[in-house]
Amino acid sequence: MNDQKPVSTSMTDAEVKVSFYEKHKKVYIRDVKGWWNSWRWGLVWFTQILFYGLPWLEWNGRQAVLLHLVERKFYLFGLVLWPQDVFYLALLLIISAYALFLFTAIAGRLFCGYACPQTVYSEIFMWVENQIEGDRNARLKLDAGPMTARKIRLKLGKHLVWLLISVWTGLTLVAYFTPVAELQAALPFDLSGWELFWILFYAGFCYMQAGFLREQVCKYMCPYARFQGVMFDPDTLVITYDPARGEPRGVRRKAAAAAPLGDCVDCALCVVVCPTGIDIRKGIQYECIGCGACIDACDPVMEKLGKPKGLIRYTTENALAKHLTHQEVLAHLLRPRILLYTVILIGLVLSSTWSLATRVPLKMDVIRDRSLLAREAEDGRIENVYNLKVMNTTELPQRYHLAVDGLDGVKLVGDTAIDVNSAENREITVVVSAPPESGKLGANTIYFNIRAESDAAIAVREKASFLLP
């Protein structure tokens, strides 16, 4: 017989209730000044001047940068790309991916900390919040206080500015796909459905993610935060706290008998300036976006204490474990994976540049007229009909000359000159004739040759089939 008593399901004093879900706590960030902050704001200015300014630049009487979906043409200053040039878009994505791999392997989440749109717009929104509601202590006091007229006024003012920035950002995004002059003329009531949708959609996401979600996007929504670990290794430069130098941490005491302490005075400034709200002193964490705010907060404290800077710094795991010098850390950066990424990236950039530089600004598609396979002319020659699409990808009108070869006696019937306006596509129908004895019965290979009158180097040769019944 079993003498064991049933285990009570009620909680004892030693038991602790653990919840798998934690209520989100708003992160109140303290403003910080320093070298890394200056770099971050420099990139904020650079990226936003670029983003907001490019749609207003003109080139040859048109918008300099325009991804014109209606015309199915991408304008990049003097370069005009057509749907047939989607290969270059694939190359751009591959180059961007390898650049991200390279920078992450060298110095962690540089993109996240300085150029990511989430970081950039969060910085802008936090600056607005700081200007309207005050510094960190003022915001804490305001949120904890009752709902007064002043609080309502400040909150409404902040959200109004956020909304204006978000809507202007949405308009700017759509201006890359609809000419800005047309978009400006259509405001506010003549916008098409898709334009209005994307303006509001992008504005809404900007307002929500930069105004409310902020660090939650970096911690929970961004896939890069999750897979970055596979690109790190012990020789990757990351922001780290030096525990050998900082521990044990604590407030300095004047008593002579006080226990010796490390350099960290436990001021927690590194925590209150962190945009994701982490404590860098707990070690490397995937939530860290590598912005350097904790370094800017810690270095002045070390200066006041007469201690060397760098208690929190950019270094590597191996450097901390093996106490490597600055020169040794830099020497470890040139490791096989870095060299491999660099070689691949340089190769991709050079090959893409060469391809664009030698690209012929002329395209031609040859399509057989399927309504009539072949016919016999009055003189006994066999005729085939073709539809040609000639694309002039230059910024100037061009006159082209068309010829055909591949069979004895093959020739074009009619005019061989084709005029095409700048950055336009012209469709024409041409008739090709050949003697019936010039080839075998059935399909024979012929070639259409087209060249520009102004420049013989602008020429294209396309294959087609000629049917002899």
Number of helices: 16
Bin the helical content. 40-55%
Q: Which structural class do you get from the secondary structure elements?
A: alpha+beta
Task: Output the radius of gyration.
Answer: 33 Å
Strand content: 15-25%
Mean model confidence by pLDDT:
89
Compute the number of strand runs. Answer: 16
Tell me what you see in this structure.
- The protein is of the alpha+beta class.
- The protein folds into 2 domains: about 20-360, no CATH class; about 360-469, Immunoglobulins (Immunoglobulin-like, Sandwich).
- It has helices at about 35-55, 85-105, 110-115, 115-135, 135-145, 150-175, 180-185, 195-215, 215-220, 225, 245, 270, 295-305, 315-320, 325-335, 335-355; strands spanning about 60, 60-65, 65-70, 75, 80, 240, 310-315, 360-370, 375, 380-390, 400-405, 410-415, 415-420, 425-435, 440-450, 460-469.
- Strands 8, 9, 10, 12 and 14 form a 5-stranded antiparallel sheet that branches.
- The radius of gyration is 33 Å and the shape is elongated.
- The protein starts with about 35 loop residues before the first helix and ends with a strand.
How are the secondary structure elements laid out?
Layout: H1 35-53, E1 58-59, E2 62-63, E3 65-68, E4 73-76, E5 79-81, H2 86-107, H3 110-114, H4 117-133, H5 136-144, H6 149-174, H7 180-186, H8 193-213, H9 215-221, H10 223-227, E6 238-241, H11 243-246, H12 269-272, H13 293-304, E7 312-315, H14 317-322, H15 326-333, H16 336-357, E8 362-368, E9 375-376, E10 382-392, E11 398-405, E12 411-413, E13 417-420, E14 424-434, E15 442-452, E16 459-468
